[in-house]
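#random but structural
TW: two for the price of one
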Amino acid sequence: MDSELLAKQILDTFDKINAENVFSKLKLSLKGENLMIAMLADIGGESTPGRLIEKLDFTAARLSAITKSLENKGLVKRIQNEEDKRSTIIALTQQGMAHYMNLRQEIVENALIIIEQLGERDVQEFLRIISRLVNIANETA
């Protein structure tokens, strides 16, 4: 098959996935506040704002707004950085960690539905291909 035609089909498929919010509809995606909570949980429960900006690809203003919202909900707190008194650390609260665990459980339950519908073989093939895509993206970055 023609490589340019395949490239177009790949782009069309990604466009369709994005346009139809496939991962959101399947409740497999994390955005905004939930993405920040997941990142904090994955990196040990606390981080400097700079590290979060880098990892999440947020602007400082967006990180600040999300942090303030999460603070108001009791999910994160700002604490003084003991290593550098001029800066702060953003940390998950116990309530924030419980929220993350609930999100994670919901995503796992939705993934189980997908596995049941696709079948184990197709899921394994999907994961193999996604893993290769990640490796290729990391090599070309």
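TW: number two ↓
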Amino acid sequence: MAVTAKRLITPAVILAGGSLGTFLRWWLESSFGAPAGQWPWVTFWINLSGSFVLAVLLDGLAATGEDVGWRRYLRLGAGTGVLGGYTTYSTFAVEAVELGRAGSAGLMLLYGAGSAVLGVALAYAGGWAVRRLLRRGRR
């Protein structure tokens, strides 16, 4: 199967978005990250904000049209790319283990549970907010 320029657009959009999101996460972590054994606030807020923004993006796109054309590229570039690179399950897991190894088992459990529960809650809130705003705008 021949590779055409059109077939390369989707992976290029995801790559560009992922590079941007990963760079942003790296910059935030390197500028504001906590030492090992302390609550990893930067990763915590990155993952929570990413959950909220991804829900806003996906619900907003789904509510306003089909997943084709620019909407599809926005979903893939900003959702899969930027937010996929920005948020990080692997760093979250490593930081949780580091908290446990530093003797903070309670903090490790709180960080893990808090990240998961608040991430889901913020994703729900983001979806709810965008649906409410769109309904209000249609009146």
